[in-house]
Specification:
The structure is a single chain. With 226 residues, the protein is an alpha/beta fold. It has one domain: Rossmann fold, CATH 3.40.50. Helix content is 44%, strand content 16%. The strands form two sheets. It has a six-stranded mixed sheet, sandwiched between helices. Strands 5-6 form a two-stranded antiparallel ribbon. α4 packs across α6. The longest helix has 24 residues. The radius of gyration is 19 Å and the shape is globular. Bound molecules: zinc ion (ZN). The site of zinc ion has 7 residues, from α2.
Length: 226
C-alpha cells in the first residue's frame, strides 16, 4: 500500500512540475486584454460583469421566442469566443449570469433546459460543450433540470459563423435527433451565440415533431445576419 501512495505522490509532484513548466513556457494570458500571468484580470472581469444587458426578443419560425443578452461585438464577443474556442471555461459563470438576468426579465415559462449539443467529434476535440457549461449554471440558479441527453447532434456540421444565408439552413438540416420523450414539455434551448437562428430553429423543429409543447431559445450574444 505504501508503494502505491508513494507512486501517487510522485505522480502528483510530476503533474505540478509539468504545470509549472507549461506556465513558464506558455504563461496564462487574460482572455480580453492579454495581460500576462492571469487568465481573467480584475479589470476585464469587472467590465464584463458591468456590461449592460441589451436583450433582444423576437418570434422565430419554430421557436416561440428567441432572445440574446446583447450584440456579438466588443467585450461580449471576446468573452464568448474565449469560452468557445480558447478554453476559458471559467467565463461560463459571468456569461450565465447574463442569461439568468435576461430570463428573469423575459419571464418565459419552461420546464427543462437543454444546451444545444455538440457532435461527439467536436466534443472530443474541444473537451467540453460551452452551451452545456452555460445551461448547467442557468438550470442550477432557476432550480430546473438541465437535460443534456434529450437531443443528439447526429451530423458534424460546419461552424455556422463561416457560412452565409441559405447555406446556414442547409448546414443544420437534419443535424439533430430527439432521443428521449419530450412530449408536453416546455423547453428552453441555450446556446452561446445566435446568428441567423437556424441552429436553434432546427433543434426546435425536431423537438416540436416529438410533441414539445413550447420551445424557447436564448443565447449570450446575437451576431448580425449575413
Ligand atoms: Zn484583462
Amino acid at each position: 500500500m505504501q508503494g502505491t501512495s508513494a507512486r501517487a505522490g510522485n505522480w502528483s509532484r510530476l503533474q505540478l512540475a509539468a504545470e509549472w513548466l507549461t506556465d513558464l513556457v506558455f504563461p496564462p494570458l487574460c482572455w480580453c486584454c492579454g495581460r500576462v500571468d492571469v487568465r481573467s484580470c480584475v479589470d476585464c472581469l469587472r467590465a464584463l460583469q458591468a456590461a449592460p444587458l441589451q436583450v433582444t426578443a423576437r418570434r422565430a419560425d419554430k421557436l416561440d421566442m428567441e432572445s440574446a443578452t446583447g450584440p456579438h461585438v466588443g467585450l461580449l464577443q471576446s468573452a464568448v469566443q474565449a469560452l468557445k474556442y480558447e478554453g476559458y471555461k471559467e467565463l461560463a459563470e459571468p456569461l450565465a449570469e447574463r442569461l439568468i438576468n435576461a430570463l428573469r426579465w423575459l419571464d418565459w415559462s419552461f420546464d427543462i433546459i437543454l444546451p444545444i449539443p455538440l457532435h461527439s467529434e467536436r466534443l472530443r476535440e474541444r473537451g467540453y460543450n460551452q452551451a452545456e457549461l452555460l445551461a448547467d449554471r442557468v438550470a442550477v440558479e432557476l432550480g430546473l433540470f438541465c437535460a443534456t441527453d434529450c437531443v443528439a447532434r447526429v451530423r458534424n456540421t460546419e461552424q455556422q459563423a463561416q457560412l452565409r444565408g441559405a447555406e446556414r439552413r442547409s448546414n443544420v438540416k437534419g443535424a439533430f435527433e430527439v432521443v428521449t420523450d419530450v412530449a408536453g414539455l416546455r423547453i428552453l434551448l441555450v446556446d452561446d451565440v445566435v446568428t441567423s437562428g437556424e441552429t436553434l430553429n432546427e433543434c426546435a423543429s425536431e423537438l416540436r415533431k416529438h410533441g414539445a409543447a413550447a420551445v424557447y431559445g436564448i443565447a449570450v450574444s446575437k451576431g448580425g445576419q449575413s
